[in-house]
Amino acid sequence: MQIKLVEVGLRDGLQNERIILGTEDKVRVAKGLLAAGVRHLEVTSFVSPRWIPQLADATQLAHQLPSLADVVYRALVPNRKGAERAAQTPIHEWAVFMSASETHNRKNINKSISDTYPVLREVMEMAKEQGIRVRGYVSTVFGCPYEGKVSTAQVLRVCEQLLQMGVYEISLGDTIGVATPKAVKSLLQECQQHIPLTQIAGHFHDTRGTGLTNAYTALEMGVRTLDTSLGGLGGCPYAPGASGNLATEDVLYLLQQEGIDTGIDLARVCETSEFVQTKCRRPLPSKVLQSHLAQKRQEKRGDES
Amino acid sequence: MQIKLVEVGLRDGLQNERIILGTEDKVRVAKGLLAAGVRHLEVTSFVSPRWIPQLADATQLAHQLPSLADVVYRALVPNRKGAERAAQTPIHEWAVFMSASETHNRKNINKSISDTYPVLREVMEMAKEQGIRVRGYVSTVFGCPYEGKVSTAQVLRVCEQLLQMGVYEISLGDTIGVATPKAVKSLLQECQQHIPLTQIAGHFHDTRGTGLTNAYTALEMGVRTLDTSLGGLGGCPYAPGASGNLATEDVLYLLQQEGIDTGIDLARVCETSEFVQTKCRRPLPSKVLQSHLAQKRQEKRGDES
């Protein structure tokens, strides 16, 4: 079984952290991840720097990333202005994003769902001109911080609009981490009536500890792409102090034990996460990372005694 | 589907925490759990107080717990001496314990596996005289901190010896939290050739973030009893700083969302865990607890502004 892990720590992780990592540090993180074998990295977002100061260095970062033949760098592109900026960089792939829930879409993008489509269509046209592939993100597919449960019909409507625009893949986001396997199975069962699951990515958050279980359920259903964040970097903007993105290390450990090779070296990812953790000045949420660091401390004590 | 949760925080949780909770505080925790609807509590261990000072107050605690008709209190009983102490208390159920791995058994009990059986048999006989049911714990069933992988044949040998002695249930412990679903399925498939899964409890640790996924896998296989610890209380003695027991809250949240009623009120468990967290002076590992506390802080800020 081939599983594609998309490392979103530098974008989705950092945009939800208090600290702002310098461009040099971000390049160091990217290089660490590349050395570990990561091949798909979402590195930044071309949104207004006023909105997300953590990612204000999008253009500089894009130019400083090492160029490797088999590596795909992706960035979020919210609108025409973002697309104009992104087009001036060597970023390989773009991603457009919106929510399945009307209220979350309005709060996040400042537009209704129906007013969002034309904006994204413009981005899609510019991407086509550039010969750039675009992924689509759909947020709040299992629940919305404002509306509660989101209907599968509404999720599918948004997915179909994005596919019609030409996105090659849709990442379904459990933005507030409310899903459990039952909901994952139910949505994916409905989904695959309309969209091949090879075009679906699972973007799970671990806010309530269910991220890994949901990811495993999605794999069992036939999903082959998962979004993860090194160390579990990035909190939950709707519950500061809670966990956010599913941790790369936790997924990697599980896949390894299940006999699924991703070509990614877990220990080397941990090394990079340890650097990020030092910068964030807080223990990152990944349990595999913490277990790895605890063992490292213990071995060090053993050597000293 | 009926799922039985056995709350092991006061025993397995506290014995791996640095702080020592006073008897009064332990009684407060037990009362909080009872008020939340918990009905099966493992509260202490009648091992030598020199070994586990955190549980040195076993006898006092046992006498101070509220007596309720439908509540089962259980304690670990390692040997004849422990059984003599336990027999003087109103504890309803005992548990004997050993490891599937020879080295872990020696390090933990100071005896070989074969020398452990007669000791436990003596406890079983005393329990029979008292009309007391006994559970059996088998540790390190998926891996040993000293030997690595443990063979299924070895796990089954130990289980069969315990069942022959008369334990009514066996709790299979992933003591160092190394299992993933493949290992859980494989062990349980082998297991159910010899032991009905209704006699098996899943005792998962979350050291590598796989606890909930493994518990869910065990439920899918037919296991109906899970051991959990409030807040995820209790670390990993083999990797200080890493997570230990699977958190009660995380399991409860998943079960609720799956439509499985346990009769336990999640918010009230969180209240009790918050008290324990204050005593431990560190954030407990349960993601549901931390998410709950984050929302509570946010609501409080909302009220104040």
TrEMBL record, chains A, B:
Keywords in alphabetical order: Lyase, Metal-binding, Transferase
InterPro entries reported for this sequence: AIPM/Hcit_synth_CS, Aldolase_TIM, HMGL, PYR_CT
BP term (GO), one: L-leucine catabolic process
Domain Pyruvate carboxyltransferase: 3-270
Presence of the UniProt keyword Lyase in the record: yes
GO molecular function (one): metal ion binding
Pfam families assigned: HMGL-like (PF00682)
Signal sequence coordinates: none
NCBIfam families, sorted: PRK05692.1
Entry similarity comment: Belongs to the HMG-CoA lyase family. Belongs to the alpha-IPM synthase/homocitrate synthase family.
Protein name (database record): Hydroxymethylglutaryl-CoA lyase
Lineage: Bacteria, Bacillati, Bacillota, Bacilli, Bacillales
